[in-house]
Design goal:
Layout: H1 5-23, H2 34-46, E1 53-54, E2 63-64, H3 68-71, H4 75-91, E3 103-105, E4 109-113, H5 119-128, E5 135-143, H6 144-147, E6 148-150, E7 153-154, H7 157-168, E8 172-178, E9 180-181, E10 202-206, E11 219-223, H8 228-245, E12 251-256, H9 270-290, E13 295-299, H10 304-316, E14 320-323, H11 331-337, E15 350-354, H12 373-383, E16 388-392, H13 401-410, E17 432-434
Parallel strand pairs: 3-17, 4-5, 4-16, 5-8, 8-12, 12-13, 13-14, 14-15, 15-16
Antiparallel strand pairs: 1-2, 6-7, 9-11, 10-11
Length: about 425
């Protein structure tokens, strides 16, 4: 069954009620009960409403349900932005000569996404995949202010610890840098950027998370990337991360969160939106330059008018394409976003993810309709052309989905080649792919 944008509003209420009920089981980052943490993460993310966003205090990839304009067709903006990105690609200087070692660390396969990063949970997750060579490691999310504690001052403690834990288990780590927050009063950018110099550093987005219930503050934040100074600070962060981790063989990839902008308290103008994605394209390209030997990725979904142009820039810049959802019957994704994966397949790495909601339904904000794990896998591999797949460690549902994921990995239906059946061919934009430097 297909669901229109308008019909999604009607479906949201039951998902939010489920979220509020299950969220009561949740806890903080130091809690070690896997079922409690995953239940909270899934419950809150499953309540993604057309006019709200949800998350836990430390969710892997909190998602913005796109606002109406992000789903709409706007040929004028789409064609203008695509033409600008094509012109940029045509005039871009060749930088490969400046890179003395163009090999890229390449370990395609399956990675587990965690909503928590306490050491106990990490060790438990790593133990669960220890004997699964096709499951190469973890993907963990770190918010921008957690890394840049003041201007130009970076705290790599969390990443260093998590990287060491993965490496000690013979696994690898993907790092996602978050530039959106969904907790009441949360900060998407470091405190020094909440000034007029950076246009406040971020804009407010409406949230519906448990953290906001009973509070006067009902907004989270998204980094104000339409401001060039915010752009430059994000590039500086990516550069610092690249300087530290690019040549670490256990550091498999670096990515940014999804592109959907969410419902803004004060909507950006069309000019500001275009500046936002022009600047994001520059951040993506700069991140790849900072990680010449590592897969650099951007998760994409909406707004629809900017995605073809952004992906054009990504392919030209050797930036991988990631995705925040596998929703096999979602009309907006099926008709407008998944076809854009074809622009990237074989040229740059492709890495879709299975989010908590994806285990429960096949349509965003849809009714309970759990797909088979094997169908999620087949869709990512066959339709989306995945080199990487990111599976969220979720325990909400009956039966709980993550144990079913592990069962699938151990079953005869799961390919036992090194990449677990995913495309392991080196992308055409890479000079060479190697398992380690």
């Amino acid at each position: 069954m297909k669901y229109s944008f308008q019909s999604r509003v009607a479906l949201t209420g039951s998902m939010i009620s489920l979220a509020v009920m299950l969220a009561a089981c949740g806890g903080g980052e130091d809690e070690t009960a896997a079922q409690a943490e995953s239940a909270q993460a899934v419950a809150l993310e499953s309540a993604k409403a057309v006019t709200s966003t949800t998350t836990t205090s430390d969710g892997f990839m909190p998602e913005v349900t796109p606002d109406a304009w992000e789903l709409a067709n706007d040929p004028t903006v789409e064609q203008s932005f695509l033409a600008a990105m094509q012109q940029k690609a045509a005039s871009a200087p060749l930088l490969s000569a400046a890179v003395t070692d163009a090999r890229v660390k390449w370990n395609p396969g399956h990675y587990i996404a965690l909503g928590r990063r306490d050491a106990t949970t990490l060790q438990q997750a790593l133990t669960e995949i220890k004997d699964l060579p096709q499951v190469k490691g973890l993907i963990l999310r770190y918010e921008w202010p957690q890394i840049e504690t003041s201007k130009g001052v970076y705290d790599f403690t969390r990443i260093d610890r998590d990287l060491a834990l993965a490496q000690s288990a013979g696994k690898r780590l993907w790092v996602m840098v978050g530039t959106k927050v969904f907790t009441s009063g949360g900060r998407a950018v470091p405190d020094y950027m909440h000034t007029a110099e950076y246009e406040g550093g971020a804009y407010k987005i409406l949230i519906g998370a448990r953290d906001a219930l009973g509070s006067n503050e009902r907004y989270g934040e998204n980094a104000a990337l339409h401001n060039v100074k915010v752009r430059d600070r994000l590039i500086a962060l990516a550069t610092a991360l690249g300087n530290r981790y690019n040549r670490n063989n256990a550091f498999e990839g670096m990515t940014f969160n999804e592109t959907a902008m969410g419902q803004m308290a004060v909507p950006l103008t069309t000019t500001q939106r275009t500046a936002y994605f022009t600047n994001l394209a520059a951040v993506d390209a700069a991140t790849q330059r900072a990680f010449p030997n590592t897969v650099a990725m951007q998760f994409i979904n909406f707004p629809r008018p900017y995605m073809a142009g952004l992906i054009t820039n990504m392919v030209n810049s050797k930036v991988a394409l990631g995705g925040p959802d596998i929703l096999m019957q979602d009309p907006d994704l099926t008709n407008n976003i998944y076809p854009l994966y074809d622009l990237a397949k074989g040229k740059v790495p492709v890495g879709p993810s299975v989010q908590p909601e994806n285990y429960l339904t096949t349509v965003q904000n849809g009714p309970l309709n759990p797909p088979k794990i094997s169908d999620l896998y087949a869709f990512g591999r066959n339709r989306l052309g995945a080199n990487y797949m990111f599976w969220t460690r979720s325990f909400t549902g009956s039966p709980a989905p993550y144990p079913k994921v592990l069962e699938f990995f151990k079953s005869s239906a799961f390919p036992k080649d090194s990449s677990g059946g995913l495309n392991a061919t080196c992308p055409s934009t890479y000079a060479a792919c190697v398992p380690k430097l």
